Amino acid sequence: MRAMVIKAGVGMIRAVDWERRLFDSIIPLPYGTGYIAYLVEGKDKVALLEAVDPGD
């Protein structure tokens, strides 16, 4: 997993699951799939958007 700062208070985390072979049990994924999550840090709170698969 790689983390990247987009700007102060906003980060992006990317992960690739090379082993996943199907999406919704019907759509083939011959090259796996990717996940992206954004971490937004505010003055009082933090939000995580589009969480990646915990195993990755």
Structure description:
With 56 residues, this protein is an all-beta fold. The chain has one domain (2-49). Helices cover 0% and strands 55% of the residues. It has strands at 2-7, 10-17, 22-23, 27-28, 33-41, 46-49. It has a 4-stranded antiparallel beta sheet, with no helix packed on it. β5 (33-41) and β6 (46-49) form a beta hairpin. It is elongated and about 45 Å long. The model has no long low-confidence stretch (mean pLDDT 86).
Short description:
The protein is mainly β.
Protein traits:
single chain; 56 residues; mainly beta; four-stranded antiparallel β-sheet; elongated
H-E order? EEEEEE
Q: Report the end-to-end length measured between terminal Cα atoms.
A: 7 Å
Largest beta sheet: strand ordering: 1-2-5-6
Give helix % range. under 10%
Q: Return the structural class.
A: mainly beta
**Number of alpha- plus pi-helical segments:** 0
Shape designation: elongated
How much β-strand is present in the residues? over 45%
Largest sheet: 4 strands, antiparallel
Number of domains: 1
Write down the overall mean pLDDT.
86
Poorly predicted regions are none
- The radius of gyration over CA amounts to 14 Å
Q: How many strand elements? A: 6
